[in-house]
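Example complex used in Figure S2.
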Amino acid sequence: MAPLKHRVLQVADCPSRLLLDELADKWSVLIFAALNDGPMRFNEIKRTLEGITQKALTQTLRRLERNGIVARRVVETSPIAVEYSMTTLGKSLKKPFKALYEWTLVNLPEVETARQVFDIKSAR
Amino acid sequence: MAPLKHRVLQVADCPSRLLLDELADKWSVLIFAALNDGPMRFNEIKRTLEGITQKALTQTLRRLERNGIVARRVVETSPIAVEYSMTTLGKSLKKPFKALYEWTLVNLPEVETARQVFDIKSAR
DNA sequence: CAGAATCCGTATCGATACTG
DNA sequence: CAGTATCGATACGGATTCTG
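Predicted assembly (248 residues):
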C-alpha cells in the first residue's frame, strides 16, 4: 500500500477510496473479467455470470459506464440489441486487477491454512 | 484481468473471488494502509481511521486476522493492551494493492470527466 | 483499554410484474 | 431483448450500553 505520506488514503471520503469501492465490488470485477475478452450483449453477460439478477447487472453496468470503464452501444434492430465493451480506460485496469487476482491464486492455500488455525482456536 | 482460461473467475463462489471480497472492502484497505507503517494498538487504529466504529473495527480486524493478514498480540498489562501488526502474508499484499491504488491516483481525473459526461447525458 | 452484546433504522437485494 | 418499477425480506451499519 501507499507509504505514510499518502495519509489521504486514511480519510474515509478520499476520492480514490470511493473510486475503489465502485470498481472493486463483487459483480464489477466479474463483469470486468467477462468484457475483457471482447464486447458482449446484455443477456450474454447475464448468462456468463450465473447468479446475477438483471437488476444487479443493470446497476453495475451503469456504474461502470458512468465511471468510464465500459461503453454502452445500442443497436437499433428489432428486437433491440445493446452491446457493452471495455473502454481504453477500462482496459488499463487490467494490469492492476490481474496482479491482485494472481495474488489470491498464489496465496489462497496459505490463507486457507490460516483460516483453519483461526477457526480451531476460536472454537474453544 | 485474467485471460479467458481463468474462467473460474466468472463463477460467483470462486474461492479467489470470495477472498477478494474479504480483503478489498472499504475498511480493510484502510486498516491495511495504517498497519503497513508498523504495529498499532486497537484505539490507535481507531483514532487514525476517523469515522470507523468499534464494531466495524473489531469485525474487520477479526476477518483480517482469520485470513492470516494481520496478527493479534495481547499484552497482559493493566489495563490490557492489544497490538495488531501485518503478517508476512499481509505484507505481500502491499504490492498489488499499491498498484491498484496508484491506478486510481493516475486515472481519477479521467474518471471524473467521464462521470460529468454521463451525468449530463442522463439529465435529459 | 479492548472488546462483547443489543437495539434499531436503512440501504441493499432478490423476486415479480410490466414495457418499448 | 433490454430494460424499468415496485415491494417485501434482510443483511448491515451506527449508536449505545456494559464488562474483564
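Residues 53, 55-56, 79-80 of chain B lie near DNA strand D (CB under 10 Å from a C1'). Chain B touches chain A through 57 residues (CB under 8 Å).
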